[in-house]
Amino acid sequence: MRRFAPLLSVLAATLLIMAVAFVDGRPSVFYDSHSYDVMGRNLIQVVQEFPRSVEFKMKPGVKWGDEPVTTDRLIDSEVEGARSPFYGVLLHGAWQIGTLWLLAAIQSALAAWVGYLLWRTLAPQAPWWSYLALVGAVVIGSSLSFFATFAMPDVFAGIGGGAAVLLLSQVDRLKRAEKIGLFALLAYSLAIHKSHLATAVGLLVAGYALLMLMGLKREVLLRRAGVVMAAILVAWMSGLVFGSTYKIRTGLPLDHPPFLFARVLADGPGRDYLHMACAKDNNVYAACFFAKNINSHSTENLILWSNRRNLGVFNIANRATRVRLEDEEPHFVLGVLEHEPLDELGAALGNWGRQLIYFEVDDPLRNPAAFLLGRYWPTTALPKLIPNFDACRPPRSCRPPFAPQSLAWWHGSVLVASLLFLVWRFSRRDVRSAFSFRGLKRNDEAARVLATVALLLIVVALNAAVCGMLSGPFARYQARLVWLTPLAAGLTICALPMSLAWAADFARRAFGAVNGLWDRMRLQPLVGRFLPPLNGHLMRFGMVGALGFVVDGAVLEAMIYLGMNPIAARAVSFPVAVCATWMANRTFTFPDRIEQSRVREASTYVAVQLVGGAANFAVYSALVHSLPMFAAWPILALAFGAVAGLAINYLGSKHIVFRRGVTAP
Fold first, then answer.
1. Whole-angstrom distance, CA of residue 186 vs CA of residue 523
2. Any idea of the CA torsion for 643, 648, 652, 655, to the nearest 10 degrees?
3. pLDDT digit string, tens, across residues 586-602
4. What is the pLDDT of residue 575?
5. Which of 315, 355, 366, 407 has the alpha carbon at shortest distance from 79?
6. Can you tell me the distance from the alpha carbon of 633 to that of 413, in angstroms, rounded to the nearest whole number?
């Protein structure tokens, strides 16, 4: 049974990670999922038609797409170079065998496996249930579940990052089969998106410097770095081979849109340089023909994808002009850097910073009915890919039952809390000494944890740099792997447990200071007569009220996630909170005033809570309906409502519900 325990743990974690798809009723897709499916079908046909598929070349008189790979006609050679056929094989193959549910399960299982290896190697003494608790916390508090069940290669940015970190910092605690599996997973993750490849190169450089600084032996470090470099080379060569076979068959290079060209134009310095260069020679760049379309309001999306004649550039150009735009991209970008280096550097750093904090979950929450709009998207593979898509056709809707703004608030709060915890934990003496004395040299556990967690955070920062600087801040690019940060915090808790004696001592001293200040206020003639002692009923009632607020808020957010509007959700959360606070108040706040008849006590308590709740609910409803900020953030309106009903609830509970017995001090 012990042999199967890791497998069962990973299986249970896989189901946890798939929670969003289970709640939504289906895995999610994006517009680009169609392109990946086409590229996957193309690669499958290349293998099936081998060796003809790498020998044939288009000739005059031969109809496009007849031989040897018919899906070549579906590929736009100026665009689809940005879509990986290797991820397409996974997507298309999983859809053919078991629908997108199989794809979601595979992606979730890979994320669970990498998380398991990080947990097992960093916290070998942790109890088995801490792994599932860690995965559950990451699923609840981050974007992992949304991207693991998303038919896009995004989740592999985090999976590949985790695999690279394991091979750099934890390879000595891995089994041979695990090393081989991680190498294959890393190479695959890097092959399916060029941004993953660029991030891995940066991680290799930064990781080498960090591990050497922390005392890892040079020969050991070179071996580990060599493994990661080999995965980078395999990924790069695989893309090169596929592109070469496509060019052999068709005579056309498989290229990608000029993302960096659009980025420097949108930043501003590129726009100034273009207008200056075109004023001297109107034919120096193909973009000169569209110079009037590029202004201070142009974004990279408008420049690349707009179909409007007065706004777009790349999407409205003909094939020859597109090819020229792509070929001129390196020369144009170098010209911008030579002309305005400091301005472009400042813009690039600003994009990096914005990408770091821009991680909303929006693309995985797209309503599937959106793929019925227009004349093109209904003809693509998207309606076929989505499980049970017919249930999404109007007038019915399959809009995911999640509130994006509430998710942004929640994920941001968890991220900030995780970072603050990591800063605090790594400032403690054991970790400081492990870093100061090059702890990896003597295999110090704290140094191992610090190195691994630091590498995970470097992956997050490098991803923001690559995507923000080269393509532009876009929510999906960072949301796809920001879950590595709370994962790092959870791994630290599992690996470096601490005694809570210091926390109890701090709490006692803090309460003593507050209590002393409160007692001095009670001595004042005008105010003090209305203030009860802090160590009596009021203090305990406040603690129970805080518990009720947490229960109320948790149920409220859960109901909103499931599709209820804020007012209806409150009608569910309030009764749950009342039951929780009644049980806590009768056993903790007023144990000396318990009514003999529980029915009478409960009914009276409910009546008092209804009065207080009426005030609470009135304030909550008024704020939600009158101010847009509170409609977007209902948890804030809940806080104001809780304060409004506190006085009524306390006085009613003390003097009406729990009025019998000896008064507490």
1. 68
2. 100
3. 777 776 655 556 666 76
4. 82
5. 315
6. 13
Rg (CA), the chain: 30
Residues 6+ apart with CB under 8 A from 197: 190, 191, 232, 235, 236
CB atoms within 10 A of CB 20: 27
Q: Do 469 and 462 touch, CB atoms closer than 8 A?
A: no
Residues, the chain: 665
Q: How far apart (Å, rounded) are the C-alpha atoms in residues 184 and 159?
A: 12
Residues 353, 357, 361, CA angle at the centre, nearest 5°?
140
The whole-angstrom separation of Cα 108 and Cα 91 is 14
Residue located via tokens 């190697």: 121
The Cα 10–Cα 116 span in angstroms is 7
The 10 Å Cβ neighbour count of residue 205 is 12
CA distances from 202 to 206, 232, 465 (A): 6, 11, 10
- Give the integer Cα–Cα distance in Å for 512 and 535: 10
- Phi/psi at 349 (5° precision): -65, -35
Letter for the amino acid at 179? K
- Which has more pLDDT, 119 or 608? 119
Local structure of 292: helix, strand or coil: helix
- Token digits for 130? 């801490």
Model pLDDT for residues 173-209, shown as the tens digit of each residue: 999 999 999 999 999 999 999 999 999 999 999 999 9
One-letter-per-residue 3-state SS of 12-77: HHHHHHCHHHHHHCCCECCCHHHHHHHHHHHHHHHHHCCCHHHCCCCCCCCCCCCCCCHHHHHCCC
Q: Extract the runs of DSSP E, i.e. beta strands, from 55-131.
A: none
Which residue has tokens 């790092």?
488
Domain boundaries, the chain: 2-252, 532-657
* Percent helix / strand / coil, the chain, rounded to 5: 75, 0, 25
